[in-house]
Design goal:
binds glutamine; 299 residues; elongated; alpha/beta; Rossmann fold; 2 domains; two-stranded antiparallel sheet; 39% helix; 7-stranded mixed sheet
């Protein structure tokens, strides 16, 4: 393990970092070098440019060295920094939860479009009652609670460690009082009452055979319980499809993240179930199928 040079200027260290990350097989080496340096110096990219000629203080160099060592062994940057951005907000993350993916912002956009189009739930009821299934770090629950003034969110997860992290993120973003956290294996702990206007979920959907082909960061560090969706990747999606009608109000909306190759299988599953209508698949910015959107029948 070659030490980062002591007393080097920040601009020089940046060049060394990019080179080291590249050699470790990391594609976005320049972006990651800036994120790591910014994290150590507690500044943004503009701050890094301004600090380029300054030497890095020794305690910070040691911190950077330790982080680089972890990153070279392909631990995800998000876990090393303990934080990752979603919807332009910082979220605490750790190995108990999946790292937020930018694709999941599509789910938020769809949820907000639905809410804004209707203004409020039909029938004039307030508030918006939203359920986030498998909340993980809480990104969906927190962002929806922030964006929708009248939101009342239930965020559930079967992992106590995930719930603790989601709770901390809700506090950090000032929405803890709008979210109720529930320990539950999918819908098992919820009363069978059609209480929710909108349900969002990013369940595990990776096929078991594809788990081995994932990047080492994902395969070796992220929680398999949040990724592995069984033989066809549909095990959890099937449970949600089966059990959700009991808690979704008539005409309520489900937004479900799916894998890019599950368009047909997932749509078929919901089309076959008479509790749902208007099943559509929405593509992400890369043009890949990403979100299943459907309504519950009106009665
Ligand atoms: N999109 C994630 C990945 O490809 C999978 C997320 C999930 O299973 N919910 O790593």
């Amino acid at each position: 393990m070659v030490e980062l040079p002591a007393g080097a200027r920040i601009g020089e260290l940046r060049v060394v970092l990019i080179d080291r990350l590249r050699r470790a097989g990391i594609e976005e080496a320049a972006i990651e070098a800036d994120l790591l340096l910014g994290w150590v110096l507690n500044c943004d990219r503009a701050g890094l440019v301004l600090a380029a000629e300054q030497p890095l203080a020794e305690p910070l160099r040691q911190r950077l060295q330790a982080a680089l060592k972890r990153r070279e062994s392909r631990e995800p940057l998000a876990y090393i920094m303990g934080e990752w951005e979603f919807w332009s907000l910082p979220f605490a993350v750790g190995p108990a939860v999946l790292i937020p993916r930018p694709e999941t912002e599509l789910l938020v956009e769809q949820a907000l479009a639905f809410v804004r189009q209707l203004q409020r739930p039909p029938g004039g009821r307030y508030p918006w009652r939203i359920l986030d299934l498998g909340t993980g770090s809480g990104i969906l629950a927190v962002v929806l609670a922030r964006e929708i003034a009248s939101a009342q969110v239930v965020a559930l997860d079967r992992s106590p460690a995930a719930l603790a992290m989601a709770r901390a993120n809700a506090r950090r973003h000032g929405v803890a009082e709008k979210i109720t956290f529930v320990g539950s294996d999918w819908l098992s702990a919820l009363a069978a009452r059609p209480a929710f206007d909108l349900v969002v979920a990013n369940p595990p959907y990776v096929c078991r055979s594809a788990m081995l082909t994932l990047q080492p960061e994902v395969r070796e560090h992220e929680p398999h319980t949040a990724l592995d969706g069984g033989r066809q990747g549909l095990d959890d999606i099937k449970i949600i499809c089966r059990d959700l009608p009991a808690v979704l109000r008539p005409d309520g909306l489900l937004l479900l993240e799916i894998g890019w190759d599950q368009k047909t299988a997932a749509a078929e599953l919901f089309n076959r179930n008479p509790a749902y209508r208007q099943t559509e698949i929405i593509n992400d910015l890369a043009g890949l199928p990403r979100v299943l959107r459907c309504r519950k029948e009106e009665c």
